[in-house]
From TrEMBL:
<dbReference type="GO" id="GO:0008840">
    <property type="term" value="F:4-hydroxy-tetrahydrodipicolinate synthase activity"/>
</dbReference>
<protein>
    <submittedName>
        <fullName>Aldolase</fullName>
    </submittedName>
</protein>
<dbReference type="InterPro" id="IPR002220">
    <property type="entry name" value="DapA-like"/>
</dbReference>
<dbReference type="Pfam" id="PF00701">
    <property type="entry name" value="DHDPS"/>
</dbReference>
<dbReference type="InterPro" id="IPR013785">
    <property type="entry name" value="Aldolase_TIM"/>
</dbReference>
Amino acid sequence: MPHTNELSSSPETNEMTSALSGLALHSEAGAPHVASSGRHGSVSNVHNKSGYSALYSNTKTSGSGNFQSCTDRPLRAGIYAPTPAFFDPTTEELDLPTTRKHAVRLAQGGIVGLVTQGSNGEAVHLSHAERRIVTAATREALDDAGFRDMPVIVGCGAQSVRETIELCHDALVSGGDYAMILPPSYYKSLYTAQSQFEFFTTVANESPVPILIYNYPGAVSGIDLDSDVVTKLSKHPNIVGCKLTCGNTGKLGRVANAAPSGFMTLGGSSDFTLQTLIAGGKGVIGGLVNIAPRACVDVFNLYAAGRMDEAEKMQAVVGRGDWGAIKGGVVGTKACLQAHFGYGGYGRAPLPRPSAERAAEYKADFEELLLLEEFLCNGSREEDIHYDKKNEYPQLVDLERMLI
């Protein structure tokens, strides 16, 4: 069982914790969703028998060097959503009903996968037990709503190799299919390029789930993995993709065209979805998807259909909306969800709670985008074109006319 200080006093959270305790890292219980067939094939002499995985009796990778699939849910090209963690506004306990509802809303919007414990998911504010609970609730909600084939990627970044591997095992037993990992950064001045390479290689050797590299300099003291490092790591059989939130589309293009076939090179923000696809990327993991999944997905779909004029105009509206999300971060995203959809709440302290004035500013930042989302959700009908907003948003009205 987790330590006492990892438990929640919420009855529903405690119930979920009890259900997960049989899948705790040091237990003998198996993970029921593990697939029996291999995904990456046999790779000789790559499994590092360092002893890390000896702690996890039934989720470790094969000691023979064979990386076995822990999921039958492949990553597909498209749009992924990094979901927020939701909390009770008074107690800050996990709000699991909202977690489930939001996951299903996004899945119905056409995305191809979800990410838990990303930057939007306030991973740094969650205990290990809470991370497992959120991932399990997300997986359960998707399965119950008929989205059993949708993969869940789990943020597993930590400062040590040991804890990162522990989180990867946690991801597996909680229902996650892949792990997304930031480079360690606390001792930045002491790390070398080789340190980072060895970190990802060791974690990949020991992780029971395939991993994605998460390159987000803003979250890791400015550490920015270059295209040489990412490309070299892409050759590892248990490293299957990367999320490049650095916004460097030149780097993205180099990685996408040098990595092995099937490697998922993903942009890290919705404001450069089209640029990502043109450069050879497979899609985007973007926080804005939480607010307007259909609009974000349609940039991808229009590009895939060869409808470049509409794709460019859609990208422009999405990009303007994403600027609001970038400025406001998870605080702005939750404020928008609360204002427009009636749920979202606040981040955990010490994240600030926006004033009424600031919340109104966040709402205004997303207005054009949400008008487009409304239009798309209604079926892109002529009677729903926002002619009454033509003076404020002429490009929106032009786009809606093109989409009829």
